[in-house]
Amino acid sequence: MLTARYKTIHLNFKFPAGTSRGVLLQKPSTFLILEKDGFTGIGECSTIPDLSIDPVDTYCNHLDALCRKLNEGGDPFTLDLQEYPSIAFGLETALLDLAAKGSKRLFPSAFTDDNTGIPINGLVWMGDKAFMQKQIKEKIEAGFHCIKLKIGANDFTTELDIISDIRKQFTSTDIEIRLDANGAFHPHEALDKLNKLSVFNIHSIEQPIRQHQWDAMADLCARSPISIVLDEELIGVKRDEKESLLEKIKPAFIILKPSLLGGFKQSEEWILLAEKHHIGWWITSALESNIGLNAIAQWTATLGSTLPQGLGTGKLYHNNIPSPLTIQKAKLYYRTDADWDISTILQ
């Protein structure tokens, strides 16, 4: 007989994680724990304040209803989880882990079995100029050839100076620069800022303006000298609106974050539509612990993308879940000689 319960852990950042939406010091993650026949499957329900669409006031009620359904032997997929994408992702991955007898090998591949790494970008968080430059130096010294900078909170001139300093030392062949504005630019100023940024041979910029402005974003995509990537724009979009959004906005790329989109099946729908419309894509974790990151990385490894992925978030927390995941020379690896320690989740 299957039993279900959940536990919430507050993950503590090693440094103030700054974006244009604010600074994060701590982030809650809830772990769905399924037990059957002596095996334990764990899935992570990870939300980000002010970004996830999951309703906060009814979140625990929905988790309670899900566990009740499972404990009574009912079909959990009869519950409507459309407004709770993080719970849908947690359920999907917990069931996969249980099917894998709690091994955390959800999608066996060369990544899990043969020490084959996934290329990733080096993420540079927002902060003052010195803090950002320090991160950039560390990422380049660690072997990253693709750097992603969070921008939009600092003075724009300062951000231009930071990017200019990179280009004075490295060409676009040496270092690929991705930017993430998290919707920081006003629609009326966005094109001017993109023109100023374009002189530095920027690969792409995520979400230059806030989501739900389809006309403005479509105009920006048509006129921008930098390839535009949709990120937050995809969150909460209903199934029958997905293709309309891509046809209307025509972005160069989209980013898939399974925790925020409702799991792998929902993300795969986006990929199929993107490829149909000749739109590029890559996968990014969304501040999950190593439980969620592991599931996303293993799934990503099966997709065959050669682009650097956004999966370098495993070292963000003081109290992350010890795992076989490790980063070496700008790649994420799953060490077959290392073990999981899920004791803090099961306590």
Protein described:
By secondary structure, the protein is of the alpha/beta class. The protein has 2 domains: 3-99, Enolase-like, domain 1; 110-346, Enolase-like C-terminal domain (TIM Barrel). The protein has helices at residues 59-71, 85-99, 110-113, 129-141, 156-169, 187-198, 214-223, 242-249, 258-261, 264-276, 290-301, 343-346, and strands at 3-19, 22-36, 39-46, 118-119, 122-124, 146-150, 176-180, 204-206, 227-230, 253-256, 280-283, 325-328, 331-334. The strands form 3 sheets. Strands 5-6-7-8-9-10-11 form a 7-stranded parallel β-sheet. It has a 3-stranded antiparallel β-sheet with strand order 1-2-3. Strands 4-13-12 form a 3-stranded antiparallel β-sheet. Helix 4 runs parallel beside helix 5. The longest helix is centred in the first third of the chain and has 15 residues, at 85-99. 44% of the residues are buried. The model has no long low-confidence stretch (mean pLDDT 95).
Helices and strands in order:
Layout: E1 3-19, E2 22-36, E3 39-46, H1 59-71, H2 85-99, H3 110-113, E4 118-119, E5 122-124, H4 129-141, E6 146-150, H5 156-169, E7 176-180, H6 187-198, E8 204-206, H7 214-223, E9 227-230, H8 242-249, E10 253-256, H9 258-261, H10 264-276, E11 280-283, H11 290-301, E12 325-328, E13 331-334, H12 343-346
Helix pairs in contact: 4-5
Overall shape: globular
Number of helices: 12
Largest sheet features = 7 strands, parallel
Mean pLDDT: 95
Radius of gyration: 20 Å
Number of domains: 2
- The strand order across the widest sheet is 5-6-7-8-9-10-11
CATH topology of the largest domain: TIM Barrel
User: What is the assigned CATH homologous superfamily of the largest domain?
Assistant: Enolase-like C-terminal domain
How many strand units? 13
**Low-pLDDT regions:** none
Q: Assign the structural class, choosing from mainly alpha, mainly beta, alpha/beta, alpha+beta, or little secondary structure.
A: alpha/beta
Portion of residues in beta strands equals: 15-25%
State the helicity in percent bands.
Answer: 25-40%
Q: Please name the CATH architecture of the largest domain.
A: Alpha-Beta Barrel
* First-to-last CA distance: 21 Å
CATH class of the largest domain: Alpha Beta
Q: How do the helices and strands follow one another from N- to C-terminus?
A: EEEHHHEEHEHEHEHEHEHHEHEEH
